[in-house]
Amino acid sequence: MTQTRLDDDGLSLDRIGIYAILLGLVVFYLLPLEAGIVTSFKTMRAYGQTAPFLPALGGFTVAQWSSAVDQLSAGLFNSVLMAVPATVFSALLGSMTAYGLTNIDWRGQVGVYVLFVAGIFVPYQAVLVPLKRFWSQWAPLHIWLEPIWNLTGLGTDYAGLLALTITHIAYGIPICTLLFRSYYKSVSDEMVEAARLDGASIRRIYRRIILPLSVPMFAVTLIYQFTQIWNDLLFALIIVGPGDASVITQSLIGIGQSEAVTNFPLQMAAAFVTALPTLLVYIFFGEQFAKGVTA
Amino acid sequence: MDSVRSWLRRRIDSIQTDQQVRTDGGTASEVSQGERRSGLGRYLDSDAVESAPFWLPSFLLVGLFVYGAIVWNVIISLTDYEGLGDPQYASFDLENYRQMLQETGSYSFTNAFVNTIVLLVAFTLICLAFGLVVAILVDRDIRFENTFRTIYLLPMSLSFVVTAKMWLWMYSSNGGFVNRALGVVGIGPVNFIRNPDPNVQLAAVVFALIWQFSGYAMVVYLAGLRAIPDEHFEAARVDGASIVKMYWRVVIPQLRTATVSASVVLMVFGLKAFDFLRALYGNDTPAVGTDILPTYMVRVAFGDASRIAYGSAVAVVLFALAFSIVLPYLYSEYRRGAL
Amino acid sequence: MAELELDDLTKVFVEDDGNEIVAVDGVDVTVADGEFLVLVGPSGCGKSTTLRMIAGLESITSGELRLAGERINERKPADRNTAMVFQSYALYPHMTVKQNMSFGLEESTDMPAAEIAETVTEAAEMMGIGDLLDRKPGELSGGQQQRVALGRAIVRDPEVFLMDEPLSNLDAKLRSKMRTELQRLQDDLDVTTIYVTHDQTEAMTMGDRIAVLDDGVLQQVGTPLECYHEPANRFVADFIGEPAMNFFEVEVQGDRLLAEDFAYPVSNETLSTVGDRTELSLGIRPEDIELRTEASSPHDFETVVDVVEPTGDENNLYLTFDPDASEPDTFIATTGGMNRIEAGQPIVAHVPEDAIHLFDADTGQAVKNRSLDDAETLGRAV
């Protein structure tokens, strides 16, 4: 970047003004998080007496956090059990679909692709009723897979979690396909042709050329998709419902609600326990996340 | 050159052995290569079929769970199913759609519909305007640009459920930050979340959503700005345009594509605000008047009333609303050759 | 052993709206074993499509492709015994040079790993990239990548090499160096080669024979000098040679060819080739125009120098009959670089009759080509 987009050089008043605004925005975006964090470490007493965004020196406690972890541990386990395979499979299927629709040329592929892309924008409400009926009446996994629930000791509630996983895979495929396709379009056609002349089959080209080249894109897709699936509430509410297999977003809703006085320190601690996996992913792979959302 | 010749000799030897191998065991390929191959064989060999293992599983999954479910939902919306036994697919009518239009009051479909539009428009427009201004600021050779960008985008990586909890605390009339700040200037305390005026509630929700997604608009605009060649800025400066004029007349017109795609995505996120509202209001229904279609649909279909077919009909309207935004966008992308 | 026959090869693309586009229209060439054939023409003439049909990357609409007498239309690309070098080199960026070169052998043969490694190492030594085997393409210069691409084709030990503008991504100096190297390599390996280019200089300097394509139709197949001195039609005459041949539209009147600005008297011998045609194009190569100070023969014409383009060894002179026009029609003559000639200067252009070409104005077919003392200068097989 040259100096072109500058109107002045050096640290003029204008520049200081810009930095002041940008820092003000940092405060704006981080304040709710900051307020949440400091509150989560306060005792109920200190919470009532101190400013929401200032740490309470006298009333520091980790009790809220340990209570939150206690109440959320089942949800945490269930969310991991659901989100990890759902993320991996939707990314893998998205990559394969994008390859089949991009690097292999055949008529009508754009039409098929449009159906995939449109799938990104479907509001979940438009399918909730059928999905619930499908998983309860048409594909009753709790009956079909009964031996598994018995053997693993998970209980039939977990059939709902499996159904949720499959649903998330299906709904993750469109966006994953979009992400991979925009990447595969930039892969040189001549290179794929060279591999064909070299005697590689369509499957081998994927395995030996496309897949190794997709590693950076897998990082982007996995991160974005993990965040989306982890954060979802609606599908979990309808497909899993209340019970042993509830995911963490479901558990979070109920926390601190039933008490007579809203226990904000506990709620904040619970919110951060819920957000922790996505926050960690974001802190370590923020760049990939940004790529994912702008694709 | 000697090395080349000896190499060639060796290669020729190996060709001969290769060919022997082929005559021994390579008959299958010979047959498939002949002119005798039938039309069907040709078809089965085509790339569409060879590539099928790659896209067909996804196609079936998406076809069943997305498109199959959408069609099924439309069918259910024409019945009067209320959750007992199986839906009766014998007689279809538009009774549910008629009911939607008839209901009035703060729990009605009409109210939810109007709220949805207001929320979408306000949320999208403010996010875009805000994001554009921030993007222009960040685009001006800012140090630590990546750090700023990462922080601005951070709220978007959080779950609606998490951000709702945070804003519940921010808005709390019992010591929350917003009310404390307002208290300094002598206002309040205001009960934002349970305010009797639904407009206050809606405004509070929109503000929180803007907090969460304006960073996204900023990132999209920043990418758009980066795609504009420096020459355009230089040319405008040489022409003597002021900074404001340069952005207004040279830069912003070139951000059309960024604006369109950001609006579409923001509206889609706006429609997903169900999670946010649900977490904000707990397991109760949203307080009087703040229903948007996504929450309204879930409440009528899965709440105590269990008006499932009616909920399906609401979902059809929601779907139509979403696709009336998305389809023109997809079509223009297709025309642009961007798909 | 590996003669490649293109028999009436045709490619029709069907567009989405049902329109048919004939990209290659009945191309007929036989490439002899070990021959270096250059397929040349302007962009969009169908030369790459022809090459891709041979490689098996495009299906053949009609016609037959035979390798060593055997039809290979339906064979999969990998089974055609061809190897292709692409314009972009198409190297696999995530693989080392060694892996790039091994890939084809691994995928298409049962060769044991040790033998593959040996073959690759030898081919790499031959291409002078033996010390680069563990690098990745991104770490190589353009010229080195080019060698890897060639090496990758060589290890396949194909019966036919297909090259699609392989030198066009190199800078001018390296390109002329690689041109020589490629010719030498092809000579040594003696593998039938088809080389596609839009650059007539490459065509002239590299090919045993060149095939000129325009609009999907084969215009001429011949040695470079045949195409240069005995073009089959006006298109070939115009395409081959730099600067290009000058053309004047003329009308036959008695024993004279009447152009807009001059009349050119011709001998009976020439007239007899013209037959009863009345409209012709007269062509003359820039280097065949002799410059004189005074008009002394009926083939001398007084002109004015409009623009001088010095290239160092030569001057390209743009001459005009009509110096007062604001944008005068010009034709080109080349002269030695040592001659000092300035724009605006009058000069006499001598157009020798034995150097002129005549083309039918309607069909463009050559009516008369320049006379040559010795057919051997055309580089025909003796």
3D structure, described in words:
- The complex is a heterotrimer of chains A (295), B (339) and C (382).
- Chain A has 295 residues and is mainly α.
- Chain A is 75% helix and 0% strand.
- Chain A folds into two domains: 3-49; 66-294, MetI-like (MetI-like fold, Orthogonal Bundle).
- Chain A has helices at residues 13-40, 44-49, 63-102, 109-119, 125-138, 141-144, 146-152, 157-184, 189-197, 202-213, 215-231, 234-240, 248-254, 264-294.
- The two termini of chain A are 22 Å apart.
- The radius of gyration of chain B is 30 Å and the shape is globular.
- In chain B, helix 6 (109-138) packs parallel to helix 10 (198-227).
- Chain B starts with a helix and ends with a helix.
- Chain C is of the alpha+beta class and 382 residues long.
- Chain C has nine helices and 21 strands.
- Chain C has helices at residues 47-55, 97-108, 113-126, 142-155, 172-189, 200-206, 224-229, 234-239, 268-274, and strands at residues 4-14, 20-31, 36-40, 62-67, 70-71, 82-85, 160-164, 192-197, 209-214, 217-222, 246-253, 256-258, 263-265, 279-284, 290-292, 300-310, 314-320, 331-336, 346-350, 357-360, 366-368.
- In chain C, the strands form four sheets. A six-stranded mixed beta sheet of chain C has the order 6-7-8-3-9-10, sandwiched between helices.
- In chain C, helix 3 (113-126) packs across helix 4 (142-155).
- The interface between B and C is medium-sized, with 16 and 17 residues.
